[in-house]
Amino acid sequence: MLSNISKSYDRGSELKAFDDTKAGVKGLVDAGIAKIPRIFVEPATDDTGILPVSEGTPKVHAPVIDLTGIHDDPVRRKEIIQEVGDASEKWGFFQVVNHGIPLDVLEDMLTGVRNFHEQDFDEKKMWYTRKPISWRKLVYNCNFNLYRSSTTNWRDTFNVPVAPSLPKPEELPEICRDILLQFIKEVQKLGCSVLELLSEALGLPKERLIELGCGEGLNILGHYYPGCPEPELTLGTSRHSDPTFITVLLQDLTGGLQFVHNNQWFDVPPCPGALLVNIGDLLQLITNDRFISAEHRVIAKHVGPRISVACIFYTGLNPTLKRYQPIQELLSDDNPPKYGKTTVKDYLLCCQMNNIFGKDALSYFKI
């Protein structure tokens, strides 16, 4: 799918010129390009060790879990806990339906993200920056690691931290302000419910993961993947796992999300009204590999835009003294700790400094 590219060109200058436009990938599409700039061409690699999606392979679907009854039906709740635990151990993620967030809120949130990215350029560029996110509550740019990564993904994003400190309304873009504030409340409630289910699936009191701070921080990422003229040469998002506790993903029906299962890439067909929950690296660390973080990517497509909203539960680069290690109650002589202590900030800095977002990052903290 991907191609080798010459290293003789001045990549740094091309990155700078692209970044200075503040128009992102959408700006290239609006300009009517027929070929993608070289900075977006994914280097050919034969060392991933993961089989590609195969037409002849039977369709494999990530588990879809119906959350009906989790608050008022003890028998059904017990079944759901079992389903959540099995999915987290074997797959690393699952989709949830009947999760309590109204369908119109989900649809309006997707529309809000699209409206932000498709608004008048002079309005949108005011939010474009490479400065730290603490400088402004909402940051918009193309590829947060633009100057560190070996390739550039075909994707624009806005990122806004909404917990533990909720932004003031005036700190958010007017074009998506109201739905963003409404969606935040809904997804925080769902995140807490999921963390309780995960805690009980581990055999712990339902409040345990929340007490550890797994739901303390939350960032909302509004992704915009325009249609690509040469999708076979690039990716919307490169292979990675999330440096989070959990991620709750809302995606439209365009498709393109793929995940690794049994050492092979599989498509994740969009499910109307569903939200996808994936286990992050930090939850894998504190569960001592009981739950596995899911490696995934987004392929580029001719059709677009693809819209998604990633709700990542972690405190990011916020200064905190909380140090995480495998939960003591899960350890035994037969299951000794596999990881040392780390803060969320230190884990994320390790990922950024070494430009790794995946299983390799966890290996830095192995005992």
Automatic annotation (TrEMBL):
<keyword id="KW-0847">Vitamin C</keyword>
<dbReference type="Pfam" id="PF14226">
    <property type="entry name" value="DIOX_N"/>
</dbReference>
<dbReference type="InterPro" id="IPR026992">
    <property type="entry name" value="DIOX_N"/>
</dbReference>
<protein>
    <recommendedName>
        <fullName>Fe2OG dioxygenase domain-containing protein</fullName>
    </recommendedName>
</protein>
<keyword id="KW-0408">Iron</keyword>
<keyword id="KW-0560">Oxidoreductase</keyword>
<feature type="domain" description="Fe2OG dioxygenase">
    <location>
        <begin position="216"/>
        <end position="316"/>
    </location>
</feature>
<dbReference type="GO" id="GO:0016705">
    <property type="term" value="F:oxidoreductase activity, acting on paired donors, with incorporation or reduction of molecular oxygen"/>
</dbReference>
<dbReference type="GO" id="GO:0051213">
    <property type="term" value="F:dioxygenase activity"/>
</dbReference>
<dbReference type="InterPro" id="IPR027443">
    <property type="entry name" value="IPNS-like_sf"/>
</dbReference>
<comment type="similarity">
    <text>Belongs to the iron/ascorbate-dependent oxidoreductase family.</text>
</comment>
<dbReference type="Pfam" id="PF03171">
    <property type="entry name" value="2OG-FeII_Oxy"/>
</dbReference>
<dbReference type="InterPro" id="IPR044861">
    <property type="entry name" value="IPNS-like_FE2OG_OXY"/>
</dbReference>
<dbReference type="GO" id="GO:0046872">
    <property type="term" value="F:metal ion binding"/>
</dbReference>
<dbReference type="GO" id="GO:0031418">
    <property type="term" value="F:L-ascorbic acid binding"/>
</dbReference>
<dbReference type="InterPro" id="IPR005123">
    <property type="entry name" value="Oxoglu/Fe-dep_dioxygenase_dom"/>
</dbReference>
<keyword id="KW-0479">Metal-binding</keyword>
